[in-house]
């Protein structure tokens, strides 16, 4: 008879390391695949428009300073800021969404469902309709974004303030955010009711969301905020991963849950508010992107954070391509496209999860 194989602690540890190494490599391959898809749609976004160019023409113009002037102007001054904004805004909204879902322990948490986008829309409407602005008239290009940002952050601080009241659970925080959505939507509709036609059209266009407002300066601001906030979240990756095990277990591991939750809500709100203040309301990216990333790489924040950023960038870049392809000769507001695509995609994710 063959003697039974006795597993030693050393062998068990080595086997565990081998399995984890395989899992990590699989996750890295998935991240690489999403990155490749994102780059493909980024090039498509640069290629499609009123004038169509091939991918080779786009790449040659980006690398060759001697390319024809008209093509260089179209790509560098018009399309490239918009295409890069799609990547940055998509990544920002998705990162904000995944961290809000993590610290609140609620799969429905996102900048949109917590009322931040609705608050930003109301802030923009205050400037567009009533002329209320915190910046002087000389800074007209940033007056509306500043209004949107301040009202959105005020809503985030209000949610945080109420979250410290005794007996408030994470589920109640999400319900409070939903209440803010209806409140700011009602206030926005009241302003629209009394608005003149020109201001009304400007508000409606702003609330639809559009990447056409992107400029190199705004892109730089959004990119800097995304890099800074992502770095902070990356340094808290272990604590955020442990928080998904439950608040009690995270506390037993020495994690300051209350401080971590405050940091996640405020930084996620900052990230979303900056983007929404520049490009308008864009829904579903902050809700759907994290769920797709979580299905692909799991809950480990070391992989979930970059996966969420890549999924958000990919989704918004693909939406940007669709916005220029659905109606010949026109570019639809990207907020409409994300909502139309996001609803069936979110239903698909829910049904797929229920089958497990």
TrEMBL record:
Bilayer topology annotation: Multi-pass membrane protein
Cellular localisation: Cell membrane
Transmembrane annotation, as ranges: 28-53, 73-96, 108-133, 139-160, 172-195, 215-234, 265-288, 334-351
Entry keyword Transmembrane helix: yes
Record flagged with keyword Transferase: no
Keywords for this protein: Cell membrane, Membrane, Transmembrane, Transmembrane helix, Transport
Family as reported in the entry's similarity comment: Belongs to the binding-protein-dependent transport system permease family. FecCD subfamily.
Protein name according to UniProt: Iron ABC transporter permease
Organism listed in the record: Achromobacter seleniivolatilans
Source lineage: Bacteria, Pseudomonadati, Pseudomonadota, Betaproteobacteria, Burkholderiales
């Amino acid at each position: 008879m063959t003697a039974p194989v006795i597993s030693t602690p050393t062998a068990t540890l080595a086997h565990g390391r081998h399995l984890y190494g395989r899992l990590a490599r699989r996750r890295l391959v998935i991240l690489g695949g999403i990155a490749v898809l994102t780059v493909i749609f980024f090039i498509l976004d640069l290629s499609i428009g009123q004038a169509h160019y091939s991918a080779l023409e786009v790449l040659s113009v980006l690398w060759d300073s001697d390319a024809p002037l008209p093509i260089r102007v179209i790509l560098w001054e018009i399309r490239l800021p918009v295409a890069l904004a799609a990547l940055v805004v998509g990544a920002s909204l998705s990162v904000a969404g995944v961290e809000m879902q993590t610290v609140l322990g609620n799969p429905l948490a996102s900048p949109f469902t917590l009322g931040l986008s609705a608050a930003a829309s109301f802030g923009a409407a205050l400037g567009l309709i009533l002329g209320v602005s915190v910046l002087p008239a000389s800074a007209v290009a940033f007056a509306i974004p500043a209004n949107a940002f301040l009202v959105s952050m005020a809503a985030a601080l209000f949610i945080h303030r109420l979250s410290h009241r005794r007996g408030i659970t994470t589920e109640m925080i999400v319900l409070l955010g939903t209440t803010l959505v209806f409140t700011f939507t009602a206030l926005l509709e009241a302003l629209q009711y009394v608005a003149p036609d020109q201001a009304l059209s400007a508000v409606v266009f702003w609330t639809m969301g559009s990447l056409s407002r992107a400029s190199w300066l705004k892109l730089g601001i959004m990119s800097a905020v995304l890099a800074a906030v992502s770095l902070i979240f990356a340094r808290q990756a272990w604590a955020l991963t442990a928080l998904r095990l439950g608040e009690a277990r995270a506390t037993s591991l020495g994690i300051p849950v209350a401080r971590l939750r405050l940091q996640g809500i405020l930084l996620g709100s900052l990230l979303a508010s900056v983007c929404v203040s520049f490009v308008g309301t864009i829904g579903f990216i902050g809700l759907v992107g994290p769920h797709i990333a979580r299905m692909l790489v799991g809950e480990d924040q070391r992989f979930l954070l970059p996966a969420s950023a890549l999924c958000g960038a990919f989704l918004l870049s693909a939406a940007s391509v669709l916005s220029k392809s659905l109606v010949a000769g026109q570019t639809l507001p990207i907020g409409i496209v994300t909502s139309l695509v996001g609803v069936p995609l979110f239903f698909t994710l829910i049904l797929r999860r229920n089958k497990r």
